[in-house]
Amino acid sequence: MKHLLKLIPACALLSLSNVGAGETLSGTHAIAEFGTPKYSADMPHWPYVDPNAPKGGKIVLGAFGTFDSLNTYLLKGNWPGSIGLISDSLMVASDDELLSVYGLIAKSAHYPEDKSWIEFSLRPQARYEDGAPIVAADFKLAFDTIRKHGRPFLKAFYQDVEDVEVRSDHLLRFTFKTRNNMKPLVQIAGLAPLPSHYWKDHDISKTTLAPWPSSGAYKLTKVDPGRSLTYTRVENYWGAELAVNKGRYNFGQIRYDYYRDLHVLFEAFKAGEVDFRSENSSKRWATGYDLPAVQDGRIVTETLPDHTPSGIQALLMNTRRAQFADVRVREAFALLLDFEWMRKKLLYDQYTRTQSYFPNSDYGALDAPSAAELEVLKPFADKLPKALLTDSFKTPRTDGSGRNRKQIRAALALFKSAGYSVKDGQLLGPTNEQMRVEILLVQPGFERLIAPYVQTLKRIGIDASIRIVDSSQYERRTEYFDFDMINIRFNFFPPPGAELRSFYGSKAADEVGSGNMSGIKDSVVDALVEQIISSENLADLKVRTRALDRVLLWQHYLIPEWHNDIFRLAFWNKFSRPKQLPKYGTGFPHSWWIKPAQAQ
Questions:
Q1: How many CB atoms are closer than 10 A to CB 430?
Q2: Mean pLDDT of 482-511
Q3: Which of 175, 206, 222, 531 has the most CB atoms lying inside 10 A of its own CB?
């Protein structure tokens, strides 16, 4: 991109003999999907770290669920979210930006004006913890593994990569199907290596609980299957003095203990068996921290602003099920959720009702369509609800009294228009069978929030129920779309891009393990997703994501719930952190440290 710094190091110039005459290259220490990276090549360290932070000490963190594999590439198996601690990547994101990545294993990158390929020059000093060098072939192995064995959602990230070429041990080129689009370049920069010297004697296509050599700041030193994982900081970590790493990875050891019950996990925290938690329960936050340890300062509780774009949390309906094939039925189900009553009675007046697939961000549609959005939507007007082109989408709003008769009447009218009727207290469909719905949950704590909704469904004649399963069964049932409704929170990768194909694309609807949980098959959605992916500037991308947001919302594939714009933290008073925090996140655990006296 013309705005990027023209910094082509000598090691990158070795490949320029293959560049066509007159072709302009951009070479840089960092790449941005749009605009210019915030930090220059001579940045000493991130501003939200303390480069002099002391190292050492041990911490214990709690995790919900279980794990039976460390192989994150495969659909099969439950893998731990913490496993990323053992892997560095070509480039790393800044916690102050949403659009830029900076050289990590890659010292630099360069690419032509049309963005048809990118080359990464790897740092010769990069090493695995066993001393073996990190080479270009290791990234090719990782990419080939994704393409051959990867989970569908993982494959979707790299769908626009055409090929990968190892040009030397320290020079790696990716070519793309796209042109003039930075998104695939930024995404491939997040690729982590697989150590070829290890995997030549092991089968990457199978689940495993055996750790492989780490390329990152931590290595996995103990695996207690399904129970705990212990990570130990790598002595003489090759990247410790890089600007992007200074002041980070300060804990000597991080252990994750797994709990299958969130209440038990909280009790473990109160007992001092877990050191830190980010609270996700409004009830616990309001009532659970009236503790002697909080009152005398041994436990610290605080809130911090959360500017991070958030994926939508919602009750999602599976349109593969006959009862949810009709949009009128889905809208009726949405009318029956009384958020205002829930917020007052169950959520302790916390949270904001979500009105977008891209909440807490600049990518969602919150008002009536702008002229630019209408231009995007105009070619599809005959396939869209008329109100979509004139009105803003708003979730149903009640008076909070719990007597939402108006919404119930509106819902029953929609059911009637879809061929349903109430007889002898049962909502009967066109085939004279009672409407039946099972809501699948994995967290028992959510039952208290969903139970009132289920009671409302029962009150109008729906045979509604809740089923709570363990994390392994939940993973399998959701991967194979074996559910009526689930409570889900989507991931969000700003700015939205190729992952949208897996979330909402028609092809992904029939692909086991994809992110298209709703089973969406909509030609308008497909077209808008491709427009978003091909956006050449941020302004166009935002207009197109807002247009997509409207189409998804008005089709009522899910019932939006709520989100927060704060982090609620509780931790034992043994930690210190930098004075300045990153804009997107809390900095924990990577830039916090243990107070020296506590570490001893």
A1: 11
A2: 94
A3: 531
From residue 374, give the alpha-carbon distance in Å to each of 276, 325, 389: 47, 27, 7
If you write DSSP's letter for every residue of 392-419 in order, what string do you get?
--------SSS--HHHHHHHHHHHHHTT
- Say which amino acid occupies 403: R
CATH class assigned to 218-307+565-599: alpha beta
Token digits of residue 37: 């990276």
* CB-based burial label for 235 (10 Å; 0-12, 13-18, 19+): exposed
Q: What is the pLDDT of residues 305-359, one digit of tens each?
A: 999 898 899 999 999 999 999 999 999 999 999 999 999 999 999 999 999 999 9
Number of residues assigned to the chain: 600
Residue range 313-415+490-561 forms a domain whose CATH class is alpha beta
Topology match between the domains 10-50+73-199 and 218-307+565-599: yes
Q: Cβ–Cβ contacts within 10 Å for residue 290, how many?
A: 8
* Cα(121)–Cα(119) distance, integer angstroms: 7
For 358, 394, 550, the CA distances from 387, given in Å and listed in that order, are: 21, 12, 10
Domain boundaries, the chain: 10-50+73-199, 218-307+565-599, 313-415+490-561
In three-state secondary structure terms, 563 is strand
Tens-digit pLDDT profile for residues 75-92:
999 999 999 999 999 999
- The closest alpha carbon to 277, from 301, 306, 249, 250, belongs to 301
What is the pLDDT averaged over residues 250-257?
A: 98
Cβ pair 178, 115 in contact under 8 A:
yes
Place of tokens 């990577």: 590
Residue 17 pLDDT > 50: no
- Average the pLDDT over 536-554 and give the result: 96
The CATH homologous superfamily of the domain defined by 10-50+73-199: Periplasmic binding protein-like II (3.40.190.10)
